[in-house]
């Protein structure tokens, strides 16, 4: 925190804008410490609360607009690209799609507080061809709900944050080492899980050509279309004779699946 406060003393507004913009573009740089620091330093007027709010809102909104148009013109390709950098690519889109489909544009009100949804919701809005003015109206409210509380917390607890900065100065190196070890352990564990999952997936997976051969040869198979509602709506083509089941309903509807045949599942 001390380093962030020092940066604000010298560069202030520019640091806040860049940090918020990068965070909302998906770069793994959390912007909430910068918002807290901006709020704390607003007691000295560098920057003021009003300027901090305006810069944070413009930065977040401009990043979201870029994602909106990437989704509008790139389609689902941009979602697959986002998930390539996720530690849980097999579920990152489906979980956030479910939230977005359930709450619609209202999900933008809380998107900044939900990991994954913050990055996925704007391109999903573009993908669904939601009018840009409507997206901007909802997203603006979401940006305000996110930036104002953090700035106010920093402003109201500026003395406590100053004490935290002194603590960080005294024990900063030890605390940093502990945090880095914890983060590294978490990342290594998730990478192990990911590789284990993909090894299992490769052992039970078949290629489209193999599936086509099974259909052509008249083998006894049942094809289950497990694409999410949003994925299906944006690409409604289905493999002939496939059974359409929403992923969340698979366990409930398992009794509907034909017995004595090979089951083949496919999704996005």
Please outline what is shown here:
With 268 residues, the protein is mainly α.
Q: What report would you give on this structure?
A:
The chain is mainly alpha-helical. Helices cover 66% and strands 4% of the residues. It is built from eleven helices and three strands; from the N terminus they run H-H-H-H-H-H-H-H-H-H-E-H-E-E. The protein has helices spanning 2-10, 13-24, 32-41, 49-74, 76-84, 92-103, 117-127, 132-156, 158-204, 208-216, 229-234, and strands at residues 221-225, 243-244, 262-266. A three-stranded parallel β-sheet has the order 2-1-3, with no helix packed on it. The chain is elongated and about 75 Å long. The mean pLDDT is 77.
Any key phrases for this structure?
268 residues, mainly alpha, 3-stranded parallel sheet, 3 strands, 4% strand
Contiguous low-pLDDT stretches (5 residues minimum) are none
Strand content: under 5%
Order of helices and strands: HHHHHHHHHHEHEE
Helix/strand/pairing category: mainly alpha
From the alpha carbons, calculate the radius of gyration and give it in angstroms.
Answer: 23 Å
Helix segment tally? 11
Number of DSSP strand runs: 3
- Distance separating the two termini: 42 Å
Mean pLDDT: 77
> How many strands, which pairing sense, and closed or not: the largest β-sheet?
3 strands, parallel
Overall 3D form: elongated
């Amino acid at each position: 925190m001390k380093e962030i406060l020092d940066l604000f003393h010298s560069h202030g507004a520019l640091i806040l804008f860049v940090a918020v913009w990068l965070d909302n573009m998906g770069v793994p740089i959390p912007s909430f410490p910068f918002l807290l620091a901006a709020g704390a330093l607003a007691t000295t007027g560098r920057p003021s609360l009003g300027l901090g709010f305006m810069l944070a809102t413009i930065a977040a909104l401009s990043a979201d607009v870029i994602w909106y148009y990437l989704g509008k013109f790139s389609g689902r390709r941009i979602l697959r690209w986002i998930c390539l950098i996720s530690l849980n690519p097999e579920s990152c889109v489906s979980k956030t799609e479910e939230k977005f489909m359930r709450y619609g544009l209202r999900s933008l009100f809380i998107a900044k507080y939900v990991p994954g949804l913050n990055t996925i919701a704007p391109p999903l809005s573009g993908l669904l061809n939601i009018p840009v003015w409507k997206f901007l109206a909802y997203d603006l409210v979401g940006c305000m709900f996110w930036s104002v509380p953090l700035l106010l917390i920093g402003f109201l607890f500026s003395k406590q944050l100053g004490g935290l900065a002194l603590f960080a100065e005294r024990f900063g190196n030890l605390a940093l080492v502990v945090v880095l070890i914890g983060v590294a352990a978490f990342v290594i564990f998730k990478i192990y899980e990911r590789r284990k999952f993909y090894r299992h997936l490769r052992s039970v997976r078949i290629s489209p050509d193999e599936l086509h051969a099974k259909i052509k040869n008249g083998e006894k198979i049942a094809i289950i279309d497990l694409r999410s509602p949003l994925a299906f709506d944006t690409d409604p083509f289905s493999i002939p004779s496939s059974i359409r089941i929403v992923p969340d309903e698979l366990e409930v509807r398992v009794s509907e699946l034909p017995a004595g045949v090979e089951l083949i599942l496919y999704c996005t």
